[in-house]
Amino acid sequence: MTWTQLPLGPIQTNAYILNNSKGDALIFDPGGDADTLLQWLQDKQITPLAILLTHAHFDHIGAVDAVRDAYSIPVYLHKNEENWLEDPELNRSTAFLGRTKVTARPAEKILHGEQSLQIGSFSCNVLETPGHSPGSVSFYFENEGIVFSGDALFASSIGRTDLPGGNHQQLLESIHSKLMDLPEETIVACGHGPTTTILREMDSNPFLNAL
């Protein structure tokens, strides 16, 4: 398996593509610039099997419908945010973008709690990591040694919690109980900025070491 980070959309949110040697792939958080993403997939001869959303803020969903329609694939989203895709107030595009409203059709696959997912040859564990938003999840691929954490954990930082549905203490608890329990060498594929590792954040993240 290989993975690629592509910053997309109005605030350069990291989309990730995890693909196998056959060219099958999963897409995480396609935040915008649909034409760029679709052209990249075509150039690399990669065929996505599903879109997995860590959460449904506007900057993570801008290219969802375009990619979903191009490949006739399902979208996965936690139940606590199942209404956010259609609602620009809930996904915060109204607040941040004004007249430019970001929406998408409802997700085909609703995640109810923590579970294991098997999509084609891809296998992962869904970890509930709320705090940045009520339906935030992280997708942990044990065999690949990587977790797609969305906006829960960043390199030397954590997700903001001042948006509706955010909760600072809940986010810290999510990070400590779910992400910090992963193997230290696990790569953290963050929603913004560079990737990091569990060990690096365990040792140097000021938000986590202040406790």
TrEMBL record:
Ranges where the Metallo-beta-lactamase domain occurs: 12-192
Keywords assigned: Hydrolase, Metal-binding, Zinc
UniProt superkingdom: Bacteria
Pfam families: Lactamase_B
Matches recorded under Gene3D superfamilies: Ribonuclease Z/Hydroxyacylglutathione hydrolase-like (3.60.15.10)
Named cofactor requirement(s): Zn(2+)
The protein's name in its UniProt record: MBL fold metallo-hydrolase
Organism for this UniProt entry: Alkalicoccobacillus gibsonii
